[in-house]
């Protein structure tokens, strides 16, 4: 939660020098390079038949969503992305139920809906209900949350007993190294050569190493220890950290946003409390 919540302030700083596509290539590329040592060891112990599953994991957890959110930000406000990103737990429930026959409860579904409503209130609290959004580009974050739901369920159903370091190493190197190559085709070297982008580059490096590589290792481990929905519910807690960074950055916290936070907490309680469903990985 702390790492992902801090990602927003790092993205904000990174965008002062790079456009969204350049930032995404750097973020995934740096994560991919640092994942190589993990991947080298993992390739020795992970069966070859799981390589395609890990490629799917890399694409759905990081590769595809990162580019979709970057493209969406060129035409829509970050607030829109914040709201739509909160669909991740709902997507996790629907994909788990319909594709993997994961049992759920009305209590958990209610918690997902309550948490989503709180996220909407939290984001709209400082926007006075006014959002600049392109309907076409707003579809992109929805597709991204569908990818997150797939990644969570794939981890639980297909990779339950695997080492999360191995999973992350292979998955991130598969999507990160091509992104690293993309750095040289998007004008990044020219921007860095000006000498005015080093702070932004440092923020993106922290975003790639901590907010992508380390964060996904921890997330995969959480999925293995609990269930996909429980882990996806972290999405609702991320705004707390993001808003805290915003306050430190000079932004004001409204009473409406405080109400949204309390509603999110209620949603997380309903989602994560009670007996966890009995899931048998395939």
Write up what this structure looks like.
The protein has 282 residues and is mainly α. 77% of the residues lie in helices and 0% in strands. It is built from 13 helices and no strands. Helix 2 packs across helix 10 and helix 4 packs parallel to helix 7. It is globular and about 50 Å long. The C terminus is likely disordered.
Q: What is the count of helical runs? A: 13
Q: What is the count of structural domains?
A: 1
Mean pLDDT: 81
> Helix and strand succession?
HHHHHHHHHHHHH
Share of residues in strands: under 5%
Extended strand count? 0
> What structural category characterises the helix and strand content?
mainly alpha
Largest sheet: none
Regarding quaternary structure, how should these chains be classified? Answer: single chain
**Which parts are unreliable, with pLDDT below 50 for 5 consecutive residues or more?**
276-282
> What fraction, in percent, of the residue positions are helical?
over 70%
CA distance, first residue to last residue? 28 Å
Q: Assign an overall shape.
A: globular
Radius of gyration: 18 Å
Features:
single chain; 282 residues; mainly alpha; 13 helices; 77% helix; globular; disordered C terminus
Structure summarized in a few sentences:
The chain is mostly helical and 282 residues long. It contains 13 helices and no strands.
Walk me through the topology:
Layout: H1 2-14, H2 20-45, H3 51-73, H4 78-85, H5 88-100, H6 106-124, H7 135-158, H8 164-182, H9 188-193, H10 198-225, H11 228-232, H12 234-248, H13 255-272
Helix pairs in contact: 1-10, 1-12, 2-3, 2-8, 2-10, 3-7, 3-8, 4-6, 4-7, 5-7, 6-13, 8-10, 12-13
